[in-house]
Amino acid sequence: MVKVAYIIGNMEGQDTASFNASRLGRKEHWNSVYDREISNFTESGDIGEIWFGEDAAAKMVMWVCDHIDSTDARILDVGCGNGHLLLELAEEGYTNLTGTDYSAQAVVLAQRIAASRSLDSRITFLEQDFLDAGDVVRVAGSEKFDVVLDKGTYDAICLKPKDAEGEGAGVDQSAIDMYPASVAGSLKDTGVFLITSCNWTEDELVARFQEHLECVGRVEHKSFRFGGAVGQTVATAAFKKRSR
């Protein structure tokens, strides 16, 4: 069974100073989620939730297939969770895939799912703190990545509480500010970054990443009309590193 999940933070059109942190930005929450999903996978083979649904994931996979010709391209999925996105890319023939998550339990789950599908030779799953500059360097290495993917991780980071404060506290602005630099530090000079968000519009993502990254494309999703305005439930945009 595939479950669909969304991160809802009521952020659109707001500055991060104007909303509260959530358990969705806490490592302890995700450890608990993936502990449960490991048990479910062991008992029934259920891989767990597919963030933003299979359609959003499929469009990201299609974008990679359309724009990245080399199946040996070095691809990183940040906040990989159960590894669904990389599993789909491995099925498409990509062989140099890395998934990272700050939850050790997520890494265990992703490794077990990949092994059950005989795809573990194509994907490496690692524990990583993407907001730690040293850990970014450790995972990226001197070669760095051709592609960095994000499906919901930036959304969760934008809900991370300050210090040890809990739900309802202010968000950790330093973590939010660090994220674009971590993406740029993970990418080759010619690399691309593809992100899907349900809490930020394309224009907002462009504005937030503009110091380090330049928007070079977008992916269309189903739109809706409300109050005379047209919008999408999720936004997917592609970026490249800015020249220095």
Description:
The chain is α/β, with parallel strands linked by helices. It is 36% helix and 25% strand. The protein is built from eight helices and eleven strands. The protein has helices spanning 27-44, 53-67, 84-91, 104-116, 133-140, 153-157, 173-186, 202-209; strands at 2-5, 48-51, 75-78, 97-101, 123-127, 145-151, 187-197, 213-219, 223-226, 229-232, 235-241. The strands form three sheets. Strands 5-4-3-6-7-11-8 form a seven-stranded mixed sheet, sandwiched between helices. Strands 1-2 form a two-stranded parallel sheet. Helix 3 (84-91) links the parallel strand 3 and strand 4. The relative contact order is 0.17. Mean pLDDT is 86; it is low at 1-14.
Provide key terms for this protein:
244 residues, alpha/beta, 7-stranded mixed sheet, two-stranded parallel ribbon, 36% helix, 25% strand, disordered N terminus
What fraction of the residues are assigned to beta strands by DSSP? 25-35%
Weakly predicted, low-confidence segments: 1-14
Number of helices, counting only DSSP H or I runs of 4 residues or more: 8
Shape: globular
Question: What is the overall pLDDT average?
Answer: 86
For the terminal residues, how far apart are their CA atoms? Answer: 47 Å
Give the structural class. alpha/beta
Largest sheet: 7 strands, mixed
What's the count of strands?
Answer: 11
Fraction of residues in H or I helices: 25-40%
Supply Rg.
Answer: 17 Å
N to C succession of SSEs: EHEHEHEHEHEHHEHEEEE
If strands are numbered along the chain, what order do they take across the biggest sheet?
A: 5-4-3-6-7-11-8
